[in-house]
Write a structure and sequence with these properties.
Collagenase (Catalytic Domain), 6 helices, 38% helix, alpha/beta
Length: 172
């Protein structure tokens, strides 16, 4: 009877692991860091509210949300659906425009800006309480917000970090 010898050859060389990590990192790479341009017409306190909202998102996003220019435009205008639906903030994906009602008080403006910037990051509405609930007034992220953020790939490990994790066998 012939015996089978199993040899431990160790891990592949570092460069093979790096190439595999890069290949795996490109599989499903669909998340694009959010960038937006804030037009003129906002007050100083509204600019500060937008900055605070972006900073809040940057605490959980894997790529920072920037208000220094980009494919989205944030305008101080009453949203198109204000008359028919009562929206005081609206994200129009077709034109990549965020409308924020300029007549809102500072606190409400921040709440709406935080919600609309979530759409810029790729998130959709959630049913439970949270920032991304369209009927809520939340200023703190809930597990539902974070779950949606992870679902769309905006939060969590970057693709390359996830690939490294899988290669090292250290993923939870």
């Amino acid at each position: 009877m012939k015996s089978i010898v199993v040899r431990d050859v160790g891990q592949p060389p570092w460069f093979v692991r790096l190439i595999l990590a890069l290949i795996l990192a490109c599989v499903g790479c669909s998340y694009v860091p959010p960038r937006a341009f804030v037009t003129d017409g906002f007050t100083r306190s509204q600019h500060e509210a937008l900055e605070r909202a972006a900073s809040k998102w940057n605490g959980v996003l894997r790529q920072p949300l920037s208000l220094e220019g980009g494919s989205w435009t944030i305008v101080p205008q009453t949203p198109p659906d204000f008359e028919s639906k009562g929206y005081v903030g609206e994200t129009v994906h077709g034109t990549r425009t965020i409308y924020l009602a300029p007549w809102l008080d500072e606190e409400r403006f921040y709440v709406i800006a935080l919600h609309e910037l979530g759409h810029v990051a790729g998130l959709h509405h959630i049913a439970g309480s949270g920032v991304m609930n369209p009927n809520g007034y939340a200023v703190e992220f809930t597990p539902g917000d974070i779950e949606e953020c992870q679902r769309v790939g905006a939060c969590g490990l970057s693709e390359i970090d996830a690939a490294k994790c899988r290669l090292q066998g250290a993923c939870d």
